[in-house]
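Need residues for this backbone.
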């Protein structure tokens, strides 16, 4: 798998990955009706670096990394990861995470934080815990899941 910085030419492939996740409304606190332009503006925003994961020339995953807070909290980064539905369960998120660790260290970050991991996203919670993240906070009923109703959101943290 090759992971590289995203370019404008990757927008359609990124949209193919992020649209179904956004529309499902189960794992990200984003408006389910977000337009393509607004979704890409969010994912490729100027406040973050966005990367894509390729297998045999096909983009199968994408992630961004950004500073979680400014000022005294600027040494902690934040991410978002999404994997194409056809590649789920094949280790794409794990490889993107390994790549993002290198990028975070290169950028001088000292820790990583997920601000809002949906508790019903069991696959992600398991993966992040296996990669050294700890649940450091729980926000009761903070996310309205489209089928389950109000569920908890987790704050997960890892020192680099």
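Answer:
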């Amino acid at each position: 798998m090759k992971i590289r910085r995203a370019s404008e030419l990757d927008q359609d492939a990124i949209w193919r990955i992020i649209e179904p996740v956004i529309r499902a409304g189960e794992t990200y606190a984003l408006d389910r009706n977000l337009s393509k332009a607004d979704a890409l503006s969010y994912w490729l925003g100027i406040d973050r670096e966005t990367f894509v994961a390729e297998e045999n020339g096909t983009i199968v995953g994408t992630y961004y990394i950004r500073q979680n807070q400014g000022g005294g909290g600027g040494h902690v980064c934040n991410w978002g990861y999404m994997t194409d539905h056809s590649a789920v369960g094949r280790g794409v998120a794990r490889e993107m995470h390994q790549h993002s660790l290198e990028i975070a260290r290169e950028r001088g970050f000292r820790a990583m934080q997920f601000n809002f991991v949906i508790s019903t996203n069991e696959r992600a919670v398991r993966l992040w815990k296996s990669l050294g993240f700890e649940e450091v906070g729980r926000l009761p009923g903070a996310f309205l899941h489209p089928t389950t109703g109000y569920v908890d959101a987790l704050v997960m943290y890892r020192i680099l």
